[in-house]
Specification:
about 200 residues; alpha+beta; Alpha-Beta Plaits; 2 domains
């Protein structure tokens, strides 16, 4: 299956609306044919996210290890500081809630225990319909990180919202369900970012 790349970068001396930054990002997208989308973090305006598709994890790794990398990514190195990148199996960019005014990108770090993993999967299966209804008409997609370190289990969840407040309201209401609220007992930690598309 194809692979979704999610990369976090920190802005260096430029804003997310800087024309040269968007031009450089677009040039990389065109060169790599990743159909990438660029998102600006609401909670921390110094962060941006790049979401793009690769034919495989090996294909992305091969590019990063190639001489072409410096040529393609070089023009943006003065503007962006690399923070992290991760990958998840996904059939295509169209599965993401790209049309939503706000996208939530959640990283859920699950305890290294099969019972915790099973409990998380059960809650997802039992409550995904509730999340789908709450975010309608925007899509919901999640999965497991496919390049996690041995012994690490990271689930990813992408949801679309009208606003950050709409997501917070849903979370507050969902907290009243014991099973849904209890899933966090299986987490080592979690990171949630809300972001807006930089090209809209």
């Amino acid at each position: 299956m194809k692979i979704l790349e999610v990369t976090q970068l920190r802005l260096k001396g430029v804003s997310a609306t800087d024309r040269s930054l968007l031009e450089n990002l677009s040039t990389v997208r065109k060169s790599l044919k990743t159909n990438s989308q660029f998102y600006h973090c609401i909670e921390d305006p110094s962060l941006i996210y790049i979401l793009g598709m690769w034919l495989s994890l090996d294909a992305h790794k091969a590019f990063l290890d190639s001489q072409e990398r410096a040529k393609v990514l070089g023009p943006q190195e003065d503007q962006l500081e690399f923070k992290w990148t991760l990958h998840m199996e996904l059939d295509g960019m169209s599965s993401l809630p790209l049309d939503a005014p706000v996208m939530s990108i959640a990283r859920l770090f699950i305890n290294d225990d099969q019972a915790c993993i099973d409990a998380y999967n059960t809650v997802v299966a039992n409550h995904k319909h509730t999340l789908i209804e709450a975010t309608r008409p925007y899509k919901v997609v999640g999965g497991w990180r496919c390049d996690a370190e041995p012994g690490k289990h990271e689930a990813l969840l992408f949801t679309g919202w009208e606003s950050v407040e709409a997501h917070k309201d849903f979370t507050a209401k969902a907290g009243g369900n014991a099973e849904y609220a209890g899933v966090r007992e299986n987490y080592e930690g979690m990171e949630v970012c809300h972001a807006r598309n930089m090209e809209r």
